[in-house]
Automatic annotation (TrEMBL):
This is Mannitol dehydrogenase family protein. Signal peptide: none annotated. Keywords: NAD, Oxidoreductase. SUPFAM superfamilies: 6-phosphogluconate dehydrogenase C-terminal domain-like, NAD(P)-binding Rossmann-fold domains. Transmembrane segments: none annotated. It comes from the Bacteria. Pfam families: Mannitol_dh, Mannitol_dh_C. Residues 31-275 form the Mannitol dehydrogenase N-terminal domain. The lineage of its organism: Bacteria, Pseudomonadati, Pseudomonadota, Alphaproteobacteria, Acetobacterales. Residues 284-477 form the Mannitol dehydrogenase C-terminal domain. Gene3D superfamilies: N-(1-d-carboxylethyl)-l-norvaline Dehydrogenase, domain 2 (1.10.1040.10), NAD(P)-binding Rossmann-like Domain (3.40.50.720). PANTHER family: MANNITOL DEHYDROGENASE 2-RELATED, MANNITOL DEHYDROGENASE DSF1-RELATED.
Length: 491
């Protein structure tokens, strides 16, 4: 017999050990509309909000919008929006059912309803986890006006295709109807994420609907946030782990026990008391953001490219390779921590030691190829800016150079064990073409990639010391392989 499907009616009959909403979901109002209803949001912000709903702040239910695929909606709608967060630690799993997502919509299929939700007076926060590429930024973090979706949305005519286009339409509707102020809270891993969103949206509005700018200045805020929880893509194995608990969940999310959220406290129209759920509400997120992007995400991307080229499947398996673990220590202590400002209340060596433990968590299967995606969008803030800052301090960042070389080697599309991988990146076609054109020649390959201003800031690309370090590391990778290159970097 198949286990019954999770839904509101099933909640009372679940096993006693499974935590579930203790509040009346039918009484919730939608106060937050979230764009990008992926696994990360459901294991992070939706859980903090769940705590506040439990505490009686019933106006902050979440309407979750998927920007492209109907898959999440199709999984959650029959479940009344309910889903499981499966927290996995070496000591065992813990399942909790989350009720804060009161509905799931798909923008392309339900555009009018999505826009109504975004423009409703009771929607006071619009939050986003749409990934780096959806901000349509150019290399300087400004709106990429040549982006095909931006061009289509600036020309107008159809329903918006881009995130800036959709937000501008929502704000226009709010201004026209007097719906009141709204906070646009990005939770993506971008440098200065709040400022970046303000900049790309501000520019879009200036071009498309300049009359809206005055209303926005009074009614919209863009707090920056630092978000952190390791949430790998859900696999069949997790669905089966849930079925063993006695019910079926079409899309559970799996996460590590650790969770952190630092939020700039700038909300124009109220917010849940997330601080009572463990979030840190602060005046300035910058130092936390740099720490997280450079230490965690920078190490993740380094492991992804070095590990994937070596044919290693997951983060925890990469950490079991002593050379890679030692490499991360070097990356953090020599190249990254010297670029960080002091972070209030945090001891950086303690922070990186904790990261190492988190990466080693054997209960989490975080695929390196998932992290390797969208490298062109991730490398600049994770590895290249710290490299430039380290160079300005007079040191050549050798560990970062090897990680960047591993990204270049990765673009050849094959690993050292004979496996092949696609280059999943908005610049993927171009990157693969450049790599194919240069082939296994370290000089040609590094030179061709350094010439891409979308990835490499021209002043970094012109730094002779950095170029040589990357080229030499790439030559070793191509000639001898990942492990010898790591040994050379650690010598
Ligand atoms: C990862 C992040 O896929 C990636 O690029 O580095 O998703 C990472 O797991 C999260 O930022 C952790 O908070």
């Amino acid at each position: 017999m198949t286990a019954p499907r999770l839904n509101a009616a099933l909640l009372p009959s679940l096993k006693p050990g499974i935590r579930r909403p203790g509040y009346d979901r039918a009484a919730l109002g939608i106060g937050i509309v979230h764009l990008g209803l992926g696994a990360f949001h459901r294991a992070h912000q939706a859980v903090y909000t769940e705590e506040r709903l439990e505490a009686g702040e019933t106006g902050w239910g979440i309407s979750g919008l998927s920007l492209r695929s109907p898959a999440v909606r199709d999984a959650l709608a029959p479940q009344d929006g309910l889903y499981t967060v499966l927290t996995r630690a070496p000591g065992g799993d813990e399942a909790r059912i989350i009720g804060s997502v009161v509905e799931a919509l798909t923008v392309p299929e339900q555009p009018e309803l999505a826009l109504r939700r975004l423009a409703a007076p009771r929607t006071r926060i619009i939050s986003l986890t749409v990934t780096e590429k959806a901000y349509c930024r150019d290399a300087n973090g400004a709106l990429d006006e040549s982006h095909s979706d931006i061009r289509a949305d600036l020309a107008g005519g159809g329903f918006p295709r881009s995130v800036p286009g959709l937000l501008a339409a929502a704000l226009r509707a709010r201004a026209d109807s007097g719906a009141g102020g709204v906070t646009l809270m990005t939770c993506d891993n971008l440098p200065d994420n709040g400022g970046t969103l303000a900049r790309v949206l501000g520019r879009f509005v200036a071009l498309r609907d300049p009359g809206l700018a005055g209303w926005m200045a009074e009614h919209v805020s863009f707090p920056a946030t630092m978000v952190d929880r390791i949430v790998p893509a859900t696999t069949e194995a997790e669905r089966e782990a849930i079925a063993a608990l006695g019910y079926t969940d079409a899309w559970p999310v799996v996460a590590e026990p650790f969770s952190q959220w630092v939020v700039e406290d700038r909300f124009v129209n109220g917010r849940p008391r997330w601080e009572a759920a463990g979030a840190l509400m602060v005046g300035d997120v910058h130092a936390y953001e740099l720490m997280k992007l450079r230490c965690l995400n920078g190490a993740h991307s380094s492991l992804a490219y070095l590990g994937a080229v070596a044919g290693i499947p997951t983060v925890s398996e990469a950490m079991a390779e002593p050379l890679l673990a030692a490499f991360l220590q070097k990356l953090w202590t020599q190249d990254v921590i010297p670029t960080l400002p002091p972070v209030p209340g945090i001891d950086l060596p303690g922070y990186t030691a904790q990261l190492e433990d988190r990466f080693r968590n054997p209960a989490i299967r975080h695929r390196l190829l998932q992290i390797a995606m969208d490298g062109s969008q991730k490398l600049p803030q994770r590895l290249l800016r710290p490299a430039a800052e380290r160079l300005a301090q007079g040191a050549v960042p050798a560990a970062i150079a090897l990680a960047v070389a591993a990204w270049m080697r990765f673009l050849l599309g094959e690993d050292e064990t004979g496996g092949t991988h696609a280059i999943d990146d908005p610049m993927g076609t171009k990157l693969a073409e450049v790599a194919r054109g240069a082939g296994r020649d370290a000089d040609a390959l590094s030179a061709a990639l350094f010439a891409l201003p979308e990835v490499f800031d021209p002043s970094l690309a012109a730094d002779a010391g950095f170029r040589a370090a990357v080229r030499d590391a790439l030559a070793t990778l191509l000639r001898d392989g990942v492990r010898p290159a790591l040994r050379a970097a650690l010598a």
